[in-house]
Write a structure and sequence with these properties.
This protein is α/β, with parallel strands linked by helices. The protein has a domain of about 190 residues: Rossmann fold (3-Layer(aba) Sandwich). The strands form four sheets. It has a seven-stranded mixed beta sheet with strand order 7-6-5-11-12-14-13, with helices on both faces. The radius of gyration is 19 Å and the shape is globular. It starts with a helix and ends with a strand.
Length: about 300
Amino acid sequence: MRWLYIFKLLLRFPQLKSILPFPLKSLWNMLWGRDEHLLFLNGEKTLRRRITPPNIFGFLHLRKHGLKLASQQPEAIDQLLWQLSPSGTFLTRLTVGMDLMTLYELFGRKDYGEDFTDKVVVDVGAYNGDSAVYFALQGAKRVLALEPYKPNYELARENIQRMGLTERIKLLPYAFGAQRGRLRLHIAPASPDANALQPPESPLQKLIRYSQIEEVEVMGLEELLTELQAEEIDFLKLDCEGCEFAVIEGLPAESLRRVRTWHIEYHAKPQVLIEKLKAAGFEVRRERDRGGILGYLIAERK
């Protein structure tokens, strides 16, 4: 994964001058596995940070899309603080995971859409809290967010508090499955965005090193609805690194239809998911498909 993003940065070398005072030196350091760089913050001001190539790539795109950094930055050399609202800040890690890339997918590319006014949203795979915060900022009246990995959960909780959104976002330390129970979570400490109940078989995922396993509590759809005290969910984001097949295949049609819109990231050929959702009465489309094995399914109830 590291080499893929170094290659992507090489292809965008002219643009690197906008974020790196010494782009050639920084690329040379990346090639030798050194991740300490000077970054441009605002104007000519610079800050030394430890940041991996995937997050430099994310930083480039976030700045290009005008996302603002907070005026005061953390002392920790492996963190950046973003000003996501006039009174709310959001903390990102720079040496593990892909915090800046996922922030760009949400606030730059707007992968999940832009208008969530008055919607009830479930965020499966809340990670560091970025998607839950995004849904709330875009108007969701309630967000129920699930994140089973403790370091991610703790950072998500901190970020929700930083953003002043604790009344609209409820964060729970659970995974999501077809039914309630306990399952084994495969953990990649260097890539906590890729933790998975069922590590997917896609080529990119095979590059990820899962070195730990721990049992986690799993909520089913009925438990989500009970927690929300709702008859249905307007929008369910399902980004669980491979569990999407067990969830969709394991739920009966009448349960699937209690969600108006499923937004699913798939990590293998999704035809079986498409057929199941269409049979349940959904219109299904694919977006941002990469090689037929990675992308989004958007299923909207007819």
